[in-house]
Input
Amino acid sequence: MMNRIKEYLNSSKLKMNYSDNKLNIVNYDDIVLLTSEKIILLKDKKQIIIKGYDLTLLKVLDFEVLINGSIKTIEL
Output
């Protein structure tokens, strides 16, 4: 069990969870663009493009972001 916890904590894989118009993204590298209709994040020099309406950041930590709004598409 401890190994699984250590793997989770040390993982650098991109993780996304969507629920109730909220998108949680963990292990991104940078925020490139932030508007109410588009958010672009970078992970390993590749773009993650979130499009929608009334997009806002509810939480921003070192490598975690929580996005709220009407999310229409996520492009990897």
About this structure: Strands lie at 15-19, 22-26, 30-34, 38-43, 46-60, 64-75. The helical segments are 2-10. The domain at 13-75 is CATH 2.60.40.2000 (Immunoglobulin-like).
